[in-house]
């Protein structure tokens, strides 16, 4: 039986943000400060998203894991501290870049930004993969899907609406058409109508016309599957 994966949608969104920003960095001429600003905004958005994600995991997911596997929970909390160290170093390099004056300096500093972001990307891809493997194993062994969903709902309730809306856009960009349809079905079945309508608008904005048309077809067919 397929179990509820609390990391499924958010990790896809976070990976999409990492990949998108990495591509932008590869295309950026850091000697051109105006062009580089777009890349720096993306980096700051990524760092903000990951910092918030780690905070919410530490507040809601880790206590559930710690009840049965305290050493495992502690190891992931230490990884979150390491992640913060890496992100702070990246922020410091960005500050240095923003205080450069000459194109040559900006090019050198831009290379350092790209290398530092790559370190951040690799660390977090590995970290999320470990979470999906090890933390899910503990959650599935000791909690029902309903209990895990309840934890997820508590976590979501602690997130400001504007952050949820931004994350929902990245989720919609990052998932398959079938996953998008199942997500919409679940929201329709469990949330107020205005929440479903807003997510439908997000789907229409973020999906291609063909994919959105397919979602509409799926919505009329069957009950939602767990994602």
Automatic annotation (TrEMBL):
The organism's place on the tree of life at top rank: Bacteria
Protein name stated in the entry: Hemerythrin HHE cation binding domain-containing protein
Taxonomic lineage of the native organism: Bacteria, Pseudomonadati, Bacteroidota, Chitinophagia, Chitinophagales
């Amino acid at each position: 039986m397929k179990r509820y994966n609390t990391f499924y949608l958010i990790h896809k969104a976070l990976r999409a943000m990492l990949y998108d920003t990495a591509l932008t960095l590869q295309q950026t001429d850091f000697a051109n400060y105006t062009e580089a600003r777009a890349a720096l905004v993306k980096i700051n958005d990524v760092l903000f998203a990951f910092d918030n994600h780690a905070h919410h995991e530490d507040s809601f997911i880790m206590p559930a894991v710690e009840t049965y596997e305290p050493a495992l929970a502690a190891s992931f909390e230490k990884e979150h501290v390491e992640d913060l160290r890496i992100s702070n170093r990246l922020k410091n390099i960005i500050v240095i870049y923003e205080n450069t004056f000459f194109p040559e300096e900006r090019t050198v500093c831009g290379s350092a930004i790209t290398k530092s972001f790559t370190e951040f990307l690799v660390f977090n891809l590995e970290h999320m993969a470990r979470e999906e493997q090890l933390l899910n194993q503990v959650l599935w062994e000791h909690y029902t899907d309903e209990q895990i969903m309840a934890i997820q709902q508590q976590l979501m309730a602690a997130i400001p609406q504007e952050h949820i809306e931004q994350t929902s856009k990245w989720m919609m960009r990052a998932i398959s058409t079938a996953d998008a349809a199942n997500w919409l079905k679940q929201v329709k079945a469990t949330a107020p109508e205005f929440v479903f309508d807003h997510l439908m608008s997000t789907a229409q904005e973020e999906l291609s016309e063909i994919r959105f048309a397919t979602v509409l077809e799926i919505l009329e067919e069957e009950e939602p599957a767990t994602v």
